[in-house]
Amino acid sequence: MNDQTIKDEIKARYGQAALQAQKQERRSCCGTGTVLQAGKLDPITGRLYQDDETAALPQAAVAASLGCGNPTALASISPGETVLDLGSGGGIDVLLSAKRVGPTGKVYGLDMTDEMLELARANQAKAGVANVEFLKGDIEHIPLPDNSVDLIISNCVINLSPDKDRVLAEAFRVLKPGGRFAVSDIVIRGEMPAEIRRSIELWAGCVAGALEESDYKAKLERAGFEQVSIEPTRVYTAVDAAELLDGTGLDIGAIAPLVDGKFISGFVRATKPMAGQAACCSTTCCS
């Protein structure tokens, strides 16, 4: 399974999800099936937003919500700020952020999938939001200048990248000194069975490519970030795992108990040091 294979699978999954959302059919990319499946919410993408948050949004933006958290509710977004959403999908987090930054702020949404970009721009037009721009590109190569963004958000996307070091280096580059990284993502606690790591479907489903918690923190620190933390927002059980594994061809009965409590939705926070400061990565460097 090479990097291009992974990217092609993700593009295909997200493109199909965008088309389904346009038909008002809720479909999940973080997960292997539909969001509403046999009357049950998808264990990763369900119950992420409050009704009062989504009431004013186009239905297609809500239908295309494929994340594992709600970064706009946990990040401190202030009027006038510039925000970048990595892997913005149908635009739900971009539109929510645009309301918070107000007319003096700006929100960029970056996505590599044409169908998602088309959907997001249509949702922007329906919402009548002017302070938003959707960009086409890879999160490993962000098409914005150095030191141009106050806040980076993302929702269950960084785990999809086969080159996470490059993603985090790019995030660090475009953030202004003092800028914040505030991302919802799937995070692993402990060892994952090899069968899961090898599954292309589960990579596109946000599980196989997820980083172990200490590895995620170490990569952020190596990229230059400080004040790194991961706050669990949901811990998935063997029952959740069985739902995610359904349709993958893996032995659900054998594997699901092995991952009970080992993968979580986490809110990942980090800060780019102010100009002239180096990130403090040890217990003594700041003394």
TrEMBL record:
Organism superkingdom: Bacteria
Share an example GO biological-process annotation for this protein.
methylation
What organism is recorded for this protein? Nitrospira moscoviensis
Q: Which UniProt keywords apply?
A: Methyltransferase, S-adenosyl-L-methionine, Transferase
Q: Entry's CDD domains?
A: AdoMet_MTases
> What is this protein's record name?
Arsenite methyltransferase
Q: Which family does it belong to?
A: Belongs to the methyltransferase superfamily. Arsenite methyltransferase family.
Q: Domain Methyltransferase, which positions?
A: 78-224
Per the record, what are the reactions this protein catalyses?
Answer: arsenic triglutathione + 3 [thioredoxin]-dithiol + 3 S-adenosyl-L-methionine = trimethylarsine + 3 [thioredoxin]-disulfide + 3 glutathione + 3 S-adenosyl-L-homocysteine + 3 H(+); arsenic triglutathione + 2 [thioredoxin]-dithiol + 2 S-adenosyl-L-methionine + H2O = dimethylarsinous acid + 2 [thioredoxin]-disulfide + 3 glutathione + 2 S-adenosyl-L-homocysteine + 2 H(+); arsenic triglutathione + [thioredoxin]-dithiol + S-adenosyl-L-methionine + 2 H2O = methylarsonous acid + [thioredoxin]-disulfide + 3 glutathione + S-adenosyl-L-homocysteine + H(+)
